[in-house]
C-alpha cells in the first residue's frame, strides 16, 4: 500500500476504535497544549513588557550611581567605592546636556524618597507600601505616564518646590473611594501635599504596579523629605531617534566625567545603561523560562508517548488475526510495519492539531491575564512547527516497537488466534 492508502487505513482503524483513539489523542493533545501553551504565554508576556519599555516609541538610557555591591576584586584589592551622584551634579548635567540635545529628546531627574511609606488623608491611611518619588517636569513624559485627572507639574511648581502631589490609582482607591482626589490634602512623612493629578492605571503582574502605589512630588520637596539620609538620583534621557542613542550615551558619559572630575585614565565613577541592557536581560530570562517550559511540555509528551505505545501494543494484540490474514494474502513484514507506524503518527498528528489549538488559545489568555488585556493575539508559527515535528517523532518512537512486533507475527499462528 502507498502512503495515501496507509493513511486512510489508519483513519479507519482510529474510527473503528474511537474511544481508545480518543483517549490516546487526548494524551498527545495535553502534552502539546502544555508545550505550545507555555511557550506562547512566555512570548506574549515578553511582547507586553517590550511594548511597555517603549511606550514613547523611543529608546532611553540612564545615568546613575555605580552598583557598589557588585564591585569586583582585582589582585586581592577591592575596587574603590564611588561616591553617589550629588544633587548639584545632576542639576548641572541636566542644564548643560539639555542645551545640546534635540528638542524632541527629553531629560529627567528623579529620586526615590521611600518605598514603604504610609499616605494619610484625614482618618484613612494606605498600607506601608507606597513609594514617594521626587521628580521634575519631564518625568511623566519620558516614562510615558499619562494624567487621568487633574494636571502635571509646571516648571514653576518644580522651581518653587510646591507642596503639590500626583498620586497613583491604588492610593486614590484606598483614600478617596468614590470622590475625586483633586484638591484634597494628603499627609506624607509628616508633610502636607495638595493632590493636583491622578495617574492612569498601569497595572502589572499579579495586581497593580509600583506606579499605582506612587506619590510623585517636586524634586526640591523630595530633598527636604529625605534630608535625613543620602538620596540616590537617577537621570533618564528619552531619545526619539534610536540611531542617536549610542552617540548621546557617549556625550552624556563625557559630560558627567567632566562634572564629576573623573580623570581620563580612570573608569567612570558612575554608570550609563540603556534600555537595550534591559532587553538583553529580558531575553536571558525569557530563554530560561522557555527552557523550563519546554522541559515541562516534553516530560508531559514523554508520558503521552508511553501511553500511546501501550495502546498500540493492545491494538496489535486485538488485530492479530487481521495481521495474519494480510500476511496470508501477500502483505510483507515491511508493509505491516509501515501500516502501524503511520497509524501511530496519524493519531499523534490528530492529537497535536487539537493540542496546538488549545495551546495557542490558553497561552494567549494567560499572556493577557498576567500581562495586559490590550496584548496582541500571538500565533507562534515557530512553536507550531516544532509541535508538529515533535508529534511525528513521538509517533515514530511510540510506534516502532508495536509495529516491529506486528511485522514479526507468524501468519499461521496469527490465523489461529482467537
UniProtKB/TrEMBL annotation:
InterPro entries: ABC3_permease_C, MacB_PCD, Macrolide_Exporter_MacB. Belongs to the ABC-4 integral membrane protein family. Keywords: Cell membrane, Membrane, Transmembrane, Transmembrane helix. It is found in: Cell membrane. It holds the Pfam family MacB_PCD. The chain crosses the membrane at residues 21-42, 288-316, 340-366, 378-401. It comes from Bernardetia litoralis (strain ATCC 23117 / DSM 6794 / NBRC 15988 / NCIMB 1366 / Fx l1 / Sio-4). GO terms for cellular component: plasma membrane. It is a multi-pass membrane protein. Residues 21-253 form the MacB-like periplasmic core domain. This is ABC-type antimicrobial peptide transport system, permease component. Residues 296-411 form the ABC3 transporter permease C-terminal domain. GO terms for molecular function: transmembrane transporter activity. Its main location: membrane.
Amino acid at each position: 500500500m502507498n502512503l495515501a492508502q496507509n493513511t486512510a487505513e489508519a483513519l479507519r482503524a482510529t474510527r473503528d476504535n474511537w474511544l481508545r483513539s480518543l483517549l490516546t489523542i487526548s494524551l498527545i493533545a495535553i502534552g502539546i497544549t502544555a508545550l505550545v501553551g507555555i511557550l506562547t504565554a512566555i512570548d506574549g508576556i515578553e511582547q507586553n513588557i517590550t511594548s511597555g519599555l517603549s511606550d514613547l516609541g523611543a529608546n532611553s538610557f540612564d545615568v546613575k550611581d555605580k552598583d557598589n555591591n557588585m564591585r569586583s576584586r582585582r589582585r586581592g584589592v577591592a575596587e574603590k567605592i564611588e561616591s553617589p551622584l550629588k544633587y548639584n551634579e545632576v542639576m548641572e548635567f541636566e542644564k548643560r546636556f539639555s542645551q545640546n540635545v534635540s528638542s524632541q529628546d527629553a531629560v529627567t531627574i528623579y529620586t526615590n524618597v521611600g518605598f514603604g511609606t504610609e499616605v494619610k488623608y484625614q482618618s484613612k491611611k494606605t498600607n506601608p507600601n507606597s513609594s514617594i518619588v521626587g521628580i521634575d517636569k519631564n518625568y511623566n513624559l519620558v516614562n510615558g505616564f499619562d494624567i487621568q485627572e487633574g494636571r502635571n507639574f509646571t516648571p514653576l511648581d518644580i522651581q518653587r518646590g510646591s507642596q503639590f502631589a500626583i498620586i497613583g490609582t491604588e492610593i486614590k482607591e484606598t483614600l478617596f473611594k468614590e470622590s475625586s482626589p483633586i484638591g484634597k490634602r494628603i499627609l506624607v512623612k509628616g508633610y502636607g501635599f495638595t493632590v493636583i493629578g491622578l495617574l492612569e492605571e498601569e497595572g502589572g503582574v499579579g495586581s497593580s504596579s509600583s506606579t499605582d502605589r506612587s506619590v510623585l512630588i517636586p524634586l526640591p520637596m523630595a530633598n527636604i523629605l529625605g534630608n535625613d539620609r543620602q538620596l540616590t538620583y537617577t537621570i533618564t534621557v528619552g531619545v526619539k531617534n534610536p540611531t542617536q542613542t549610542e552617540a548621546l550615551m557617549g556625550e552624556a558619559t563625557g559630560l558627567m566625567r567632566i562634572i564629576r572630575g573623573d580623570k581620563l585614565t580612570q573608569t567612570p565613577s558612575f554608570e550609563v545603561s540603556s534600555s537595550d541592557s534591559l532587553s538583553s536581560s529580558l531575553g536571558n530570562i525569557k530563554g530560561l523560562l522557555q527552557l523550563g517550559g519546554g522541559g515541562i511540555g516534553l516530560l508531559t509528551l514523554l508520558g503521552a508517548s508511553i501511553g500511546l505505545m501501550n495502546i498500540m501494543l493492545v491494538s496489535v494484540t486485538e488485530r492479530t488475526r487481521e495481521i495474519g490474514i494480510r500476511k496470508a494474502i501477500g502483505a510483507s513484514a515491511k508493509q505491516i510495519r509501515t501500516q502501524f507506524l503511520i497509524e501511530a503518527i496519524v493519531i499523534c498528528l490528530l492529537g497535536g492539531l487539537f493540542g496546538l489549538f488549545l495551546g495557542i488559545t490558553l497561552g494567549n489568555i494567560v499572556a493577557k491575564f498576567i500581562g495586559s488585556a490590550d496584548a496582541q493575539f500571538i500565533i507562534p508559527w515557530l512553536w507550531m512547527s516544532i509541535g508538529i515535528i515533535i508529534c511525528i517523532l513521538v509517533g515514530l518512537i511510540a510506534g516502532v516497537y508495536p509495529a516491529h512486533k506486528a511485522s514479526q507475527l507468524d501468519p499461521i499462528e496469527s490465523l489461529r488466534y482467537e
